[in-house]
Structure formats: C-alpha cells, structure tokens
Amino acid sequence: ERGRTNAFSRIPRDPRFYDLLTDKPPETCHVGYSFLHLAVWGIAYHLAAGLLRPVLPARTYHRGLGFRELVPQVRSYWRKMRYWWRERRLRADLLGEHAGHFFLVPLQVGLDSQIRCHSRYGPNGIGGFIAEVTHSFARYAPPETLLVFKHHPLDRGYADYTEIIDNLRARYPNLAGRLFYVHDCHLPELLDSARGVVVVNSTVGLSAIIHECPVKVHGGKAFYDMRGLTAQVPLDAFWKRAGEFRPDPELVRRFQAYVIRKTQINGNFYRKCRGSTLQCGLMWNEGEPNLLAAPAAARNATFDGS
After folding, report:
1. N or C: which terminus of the chain has fewer CB atoms within 10 Å of its end residue's CB?
2. CB-count burial class (<10 Å; 0-12, 13-18, 19+) for 29
3. CA distances (Å), 289 to each of 28, 190, 261, 286, 293, in order?
4. Tens of each residue's pLDDT in the chain, 306 residues
C-alpha cells in the first residue's frame, strides 16, 4: 500500500467519502488447500536463514532462529492442547447461556508494530491495556455482563497473562465470576455471540465489524476507526451503550469493497491462484496499477463531496 499500512494508511477516515462509491470488490480466486505449501516453504525459508546466518547476518525473522526458539514453539503446542481441554465448558457457556452478555477483548502480540508504533502502550505493554480495560469494566459495565480476554494464538508460547488477570480479579470483588481469560475458543463464533469487542487496533476489529458486532478502539490508532464502523465514545460509556454502535451494513459493504479493491492483491503467498496468467500466480486487479489512488489529503480529512 502506497504510504505504508495500518495507522499510516491513506484510506479515507470520513464515512461520507464512501457514500458516493458503488464499486464491488473483484471476484475472489480460490487456491484450495494451502497449509502443506505454507509448511514446506516455511521450513525451507527458516532452514536457509539458519544455515546462511554466518554470511547473511541480517535479521530475517522477528524472533530468534536458534535452538532456544524450539522451547516456546513446543510450549505453544502443549498449551494449545491443554487449554482446548480445560476451556471446553467455558466455550459452551459463552456460546450458550452467556451469548449476548459478554464483551470480548482479543489481545495482540506485544512485539507487533501495531502495539509498538501505533498505540500508547509500547513494547510489552499488553499488561497495561488489560489493566485499563478491566478497571473501566469494573466501574462502568452493567452487572450482568462478563469480560473475556482472548490470548493471541501466535503469542501462546511466549506470553501468559494469567497472573495479571488473577490479580485484577482479586482487586475488583465485583468481577468474581465475570472476568475470564481464554486461549482456544473459535473467534468467529465468539464474535457472533459477543455484546461488543474492545481492541487496541487489531485486525480482529475488522472481523468484528463484518460480523456486525459493536467495536471500540481503545489506546491505539486504526484505519477503520470511524463513525458508522466503530463506537466514537469513551470506553467507560461503551459498556452500557454498545448496542447503539452496531456497524452500518451499507457503510461496511462499501468500505470493505474499497479496501479490497484499492489495497489488496488477490492471491496466496504459498500457492498460485487457479487461472492466473502471471508467473507469480496472483490475480492483479485490472485498472489498479498503484493499488491505492486516494490522495494523502483524504486521510483524516473532512470530506466535502467535491
């Protein structure tokens, strides 16, 4: 995307910009089952990066490539199996008797540039975000609601916020039986059952918008944070007023079509699209050579219709 992505994106932030758009997104190409391709190329990449470290010392992975990396990877698989079993009853309760009564807070990876560069929390600041959200919920949320933090699957082997959340549960007696920490619940089902979602600036916010779930962006900058898509009220007010901020379906459709057509290339990193005439196997959008044509002035500007 020209001009960089995430909070640097040039995607217009004024919902009135999208009122005049009628474009539909391009047809999605189908690549079929791609996990084996991902695994093979991923192994090849990391093997080459590890063997060539003496002659190519530049960093090729955001985490280490040594044998120490094996420990969190094994820990991640162990925790996945462990939490899948331990949380089976809670999963059923959230999708059953608690459906519509809980707020979901999907946590992000602390090393992610979304946190380091586009939020006020900085590196390893996820704990501060958890504390802020919990404090607000304890003071202002309706007493019949629950607060559910969901761990990021890519951070499963590296971070654990159990102690932080346990301490917060002890600090706020009114959260007994209302504050939960989950790891292995199916995200789309949670989005369909949640009363609202709170994010720093995660792309889960986009998924929640598509699932017509109210979203509050808190403590970060997100290119999709605009009236009609997300709640434009303080977090303290969101708990009681979440139902007022369901995404506008027509704005969602037009926004999604614009983002797909202007910033996305139809394809897959690991397997070629069927029917592509390009050697790389991608389906390039016709008429979009620069991907994003919106002028920089449209970013954060008030659209006047001219």
Report:
1. C
2. middle
3. 18, 38, 11, 7, 9
4. 777 888 888 899 999 999 888 877 778 888 888 889 999 988 898 888 878 878 876 666 667 666 777 888 899 989 999 999 999 999 999 999 999 999 999 999 988 888 988 999 986 689 999 999 999 999 999 999 999 999 999 899 899 999 999 999 999 999 999 999 999 889 999 999 999 999 999 999 999 999 999 999 999 999 999 999 999 999 999 999 999 999 999 999 999 999 988 888 888 888 888 888 888 888 876 655 444 444 444 444 443 332
